[in-house]
């Protein structure tokens, strides 16, 4: 692929997203991003393109990280490109690679303005490596789609215009133009899974199947297409399974469990993967027995399926998603409430306020402990547990439901039972999921 063909490929890959307010190049200083930056500058000299800038993320994980910054500054100065350097903190954890990636993308998201593009230089060999890595980790269709050619990112869009280009083409381009780049010493450490695939496995595959990277990249594209079809099917199924929350003041995402049971097991899992993607990390294949146990449990059971970031529960014919805040054990402390004319914030439990004439006496907000009895004028004594059952309050909400006490006696239940002869206790529960995700 000569320079003209290379630039034509680059322009064709970018055409759907141009013009843009600005084009950023994720510039590490390595071979791939150096070629992409150089080619974009050459293309901008012959085509009407938006302003091209570069961003270098300084992770501070290598002793030579400061030298990389200097190298990137030198390259950008020679090309007449403005360079933005972002220093990030990488939180230690079980996976340093993942933590570095999250920090890097955090910097990208903070940088991108509306309509701007971030170009990354992953190529065909990177795509082949990714699909092999995910295949060996047991990924499904979504994971085997590997890296998308483009996707939304913050207010802008991430684009990978070189995914169809072999690394050898980039190497040849760099040598033709006498480009200089840096090498990450950690790339030679084959104890790391990706490096092992890159250094040991892919070269062996090429010796037997020279087109192996292209074939694997094509397989990733086919998986991406299959994933689109699965998402479209999930959206169709979601239309028939959407359901509002059990009470209008509970903003919980819900599905109709009866409608969900009418689908095949494969379509149930497909719909749940699609639905749960907004709420947390998806379960792997080993954990789907939890869904079957919840789905098939007896009517009077209280099953739960614990997932990363929360859990699924049942309430009548509803399947309810509860974020982790609602799943923790609750032992809320009693809070004095001297001024009912002002809303009272509750620690990790939203806010209460009172509508109407305030009752006299020492007032406080407390929570159910068990065995509470309410005296109702003209209606006798009522058991709190029975009142909550009759009101349809989900079992998992009852421990957090604020109670209004006067001199230690329950006189009102938030959103459920008014204070006789006075007013209403209102409660806005903590909202922990993003707007638009309900149902």
Describe, in plain words, how this protein is organized in 3D:
- This protein has 439 residues and is an alpha+beta fold.
- The protein folds into three domains: 3-226, 3-Layer(aba) Sandwich (Rossmann fold); 244-327, Chorismate Mutase Domain, subunit A; 335-428, no CATH class.
- Helices cover 38% and strands 20% of the residues.
- The protein has helices spanning 3-14, 31-46, 65-79, 96-111, 124-136, 141-144, 167-176, 193-208, 212-241, 257-261, 265-276, 289-296, 324-327, 384-390, and strands spanning 23-26, 52-58, 82-87, 117-119, 150-153, 156-159, 242-243, 254-256, 304-307, 310-315, 318-323, 335-336, 344-345, 351-356, 363-366, 373-376, 380-383, 403-406, 409-413, 423-428.
- Strands 3-2-1-4-6-5 form a six-stranded mixed sheet, with helices on both faces.
- Helix 1 (3-14) packs across helix 2 (31-46).
- The relative contact order is 0.08.
- Mean pLDDT is 88; it is low at 434-439.
Task: Characterize this entry briefly.
With 439 residues, this protein is of the alpha+beta class. It has helices spanning 3-14, 31-46, 65-79, 96-111, 124-136, 141-144, 167-176, 193-208, 212-241, 257-261, 265-276, 289-296, 324-327, 384-390, and strands spanning 23-26, 52-58, 82-87, 117-119, 150-153, 156-159, 242-243, 254-256, 304-307, 310-315, 318-323, 335-336, 344-345, 351-356, 363-366, 373-376, 380-383, 403-406, 409-413, 423-428. The protein folds into three domains: 3-226, 3-Layer(aba) Sandwich (Rossmann fold); 244-327, Chorismate Mutase Domain, subunit A; 335-428, no CATH class.
């Amino acid at each position: 692929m000569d320079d003209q063909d290379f630039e034509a490929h680059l322009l064709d890959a970018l055409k759907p997203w141009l013009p843009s307010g600005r084009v950023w190049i994720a510039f590490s200083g390595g071979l791939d991003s150096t070629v992409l930056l150089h080619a974009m500058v050459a293309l901008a000299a012959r085509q009407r393109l938006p302003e091209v800038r570069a961003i270098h993320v300084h992770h501070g994980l290598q002793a030579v990280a400061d030298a990389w910054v200097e190298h990137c500054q030198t390259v950008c100065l020679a090309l007449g490109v403005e360079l933005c350097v972002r220093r990030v903190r990488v939180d230690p954890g079980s996976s340093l690679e993942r933590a570095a990636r999250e920090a890097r993308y955090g910097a990208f998201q903070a940088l991108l303005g509306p309509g701007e593009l971030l170009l990354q230089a992953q190529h065909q060999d990177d795509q082949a490596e990714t699909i092999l890595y995910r295949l060996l980790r047991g990924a499904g269709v979504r994971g085997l789609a590997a890296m998308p050619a483009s996707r939304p990112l913050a207010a802008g869009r991430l684009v990978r215009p070189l995914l169809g280009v072999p690394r050898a083409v980039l190497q040849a381009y760099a040598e033709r133009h006498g480009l200089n780049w840096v090498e990450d010493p950690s790339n030679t450490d084959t104890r790391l899974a990706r490096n092992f695939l890159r250094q040991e496995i892919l070269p062996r595959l090429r010796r037997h199947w020279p087109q192996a990277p292209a074939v694997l990249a094509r397989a990733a594209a086919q998986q991406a297409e299959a994933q689109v079809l699965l998402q479209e099917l999930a959206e169709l199924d979601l239309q028939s399974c959407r359901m509002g929350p059990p009470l209008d003041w509970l903003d919980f995402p819900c599905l109709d469990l009866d409608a969900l049971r009418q689908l095949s097991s494969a379509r149930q899992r497909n719909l749940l993967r699609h639905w749960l993607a907004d709420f947390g990390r998806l379960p792997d294949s080993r954990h789907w027995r939890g869904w079957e146990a919840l789905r098939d449990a007896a009517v009077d059971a209280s099953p739960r399926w614990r997932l990363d970031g929360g859990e699924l529960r049942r309430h009548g014919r509803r399947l309810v998603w509860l974020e982790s805040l609602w799943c923790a054990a609750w032992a809320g402390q009693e809070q004095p409430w001297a001024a009912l004319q002002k809303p009272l914030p509750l620690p990790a439990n939203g806010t209460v306020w009172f509508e109407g004439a305030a009752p006299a006496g020492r007032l406080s907000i407390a929570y159910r402990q068990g065995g509470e009895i309410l005296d109702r004028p003209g209606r006798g004594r009522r058991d709190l547990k029975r009142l909550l059952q009759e009101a349809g309050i989900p079992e998992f909400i009852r421990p957090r439901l604020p109670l209004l006490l006067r001199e230690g006696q329950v006189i009102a239940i938030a959103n459920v039972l008014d204070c006789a002869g006075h007013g209403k206790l209102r409660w806005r529960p903590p909202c922990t999921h993003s707007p638009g995700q309900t149902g």
